[in-house]
Design brief:
This protein has 478 residues and is mainly beta. The longest helix is centred in the middle third of the chain and has 5 residues, at 289-293. The protein is globular. The protein contains one helix and 40 strands.
Length: 478
């Protein structure tokens, strides 16, 4: 393990570099082979000044004054970093752990999409920041940030934000810097399968170009701890606004679970967009429940709990589920997966806009219709070997949550050694399972984790020279 503990202004700085990967996977005993444990006067790691085509993974960053990860090239008078001269390609940031971060957990791309004024040779000049093309941010864990959990801006093409776990964002309560995930100006990013829990800010803020989907996210208790007695300081599960929206572009908001938001489940303020759809979302116990019922807003919206204050918002709201309590939704006690008697099963809106998997990447739909919310009910994922799921993606762990045992199905390209390792959230190895000379083809590996306490765990499955990472939830059998 490489450990950095410093009073300096950064842990690692990468400047003017292309085609570089920094990966902590060289350490078999630790999930995070690089560990920036403290930066007294600055941030964790920066990819700056014309850096492009880079990948960062399996790094732990803790206790930094500013942002943990910065990946952008701000325009200035000295570098050819303006939009007409430079594009930041292929930004891959995955499987990292960020904790106790002073500002944003991640600051990717310039937040000044419409330009910033810089004094060059005594003259104020409007400089346009570079575009980002090809962004993948996934599998990261972000815990306790002063500002946004992550902010991704100016990502105009081929951007995806998925499978991240974000807890306790926006703890400094700085106005304009409060969200779990911020899709910033100039971005066009699909945002899905993220779990955002107990932050003080909005779960997901959307200020991008439009033309993207927000789906399969679980947003729990957004803003509940932010001035809990002041109902005028509103916080939402999902907020959509017209900061940089392209005229007549669309937002598709599907299959999200929004639980106990301080104010509205979804607040949709875009009037520039068109053909928008909010469908098959489960919104439970929004703080404005009574406010709606008492007619507190001049325009109630198409459905309660999806607040659309302006009638000119061109939007369809279909087949969402609203309730006071989670019990009525038929959620499992361990998470928000569906019990067999759930009223959310098979009653979702029939248009899925290409979403053919659920929060755990299980196939969607199962049965005659789509289910409402982040999970698709399927008895196969309770561990019944007779109904094992099809192999998608390369490796699949089920059931999830795990009570005693789980199975991973995977594809082995060549005869090779296969190693399963299980880690706690901090990246310390707890278990290891080695199989030698596994034949090529579809395979399974089983593990008993009955002795692990309840919680969230990481795993890696190393198949020959390839490595796959993921998470699972361990629950106590009832």
């Amino acid at each position: 393990v490489v450990i950095i503990d410093t009073d300096h202004y950064y842990g690692i700085s990468v400047e003017n570099c292309r085609h570089i990967r920094i990966t902590g996977t060289g350490s078999n005993a630790d999930f995070y082979g690089f560990q920036i444990n403290r930066v007294l006067n600055g941030g964790g790691i920066g990819f700056l000044k014309l850096s492009s085509d880079f990948e960062l993974d399996h790094m732990s960053i803790k206790n930094v004054l500013f942002s943990a990860i910065v990946a952008k090239s701000d325009p200035n008078c000295l570098f050819n970093s303006t939009r007409d001269k430079f594009t930041q390609y292929n930004t891959l940031i995955h499987d990292n752990y960020l904790e106790n971060i002073g500002n944003e957990g991640m600051y990717i791309g310039s937040s000044r999409f419409n330009g910033q004024t810089v004094t060059c040779n005594g003259t104020d000049t409007l400089l346009m920041p570079s575009f980002l093309d090809g962004v993948r941010v996934y599998g990261n864990i972000i815990k306790n940030t002063g500002w946004d959990g992550m902010q991704i801006s100016s990502a105009v093409n081929n951007c995806r934000i998925y499978d991240n776990l974000i807890m306790f964002d926006s703890q400094d309560e700085i106005y304009g810097q409060m969200s779990g995930i911020l899709i910033g100006g100039g971005s066009k990013c699909d945002c899905y399968n993220n779990y955002i829990s107990n932050g003080k800010g909005n779960g997901i803020e959307s200020y991008g170009l439009g033309g993207y989907r927000i789906f399969n996210n679980i947003i729990e208790n957004p803003g509940r701890s932010y001035y809990p007695l002041d109902l005028k300081k509103m916080v939402f599960g999902i907020l959509v606004n017209d900061i940089s929206v392209q005229h007549d572009s669309s937002f598709i908001i599907l299959f999200n679970d929004i639980i106990n938001p301080k104010s509205d489940g979804i607040r949709f303020l875009s009037i520039v967009s068109n053909n928008n759809l909010i469908a098959s979302n489960a919104i439970i116990n929004p703080g404005n429940f009574d406010y709606y019922e008492n007619g507190g807003f001049s325009y109630k919206g198409i459905d309660s709990y999806v607040m659309i204050p302006d009638k000119s918002s061109r939007i369809a709201v279909k087949n969402n589920y609203f309730a006071r309590t989670s019990d009525s939704a038929g959620f499992a006690a361990s998470n928000f997966s569906l019990l067999p008697q759930s009223p959310l099963i098979d009653v979702g809106y029939p248009e899925n806009h290409g979403v053919d998997f659920d929060f755990y990447h299980h196939l969607r739909p199962f049965g005659p219709g789509y289910d409402i919310g982040a999970f698709e009910y399927n008895p196969a994922y309770l561990g019944n070997a007779e109904h094992e799921p099809a192999l998608k993606p390369m490796s699949t762990l089920f059931p999830n949550p795990v009570k005693t045992n789980f199975t991973i199905r995977y594809q082995n390209q060549n005869r090779s050694e296969v190693v399963l390792r299980i880690f706690n959230l901090q990246g310390t190895k707890l278990l290891e399972h080695v199989r030698n000379q596994v034949p090529a083809g579809a395979q399974t590996i089983a593990e008993n984790v009955e002795d692990l306490p309840e919680g969230i765990y990481l795993y890696t499955l190393r198949i020959g020279n390839q490595s796959h990472s993921g998470r699972f939830v361990k629950v106590t059998p009832k």
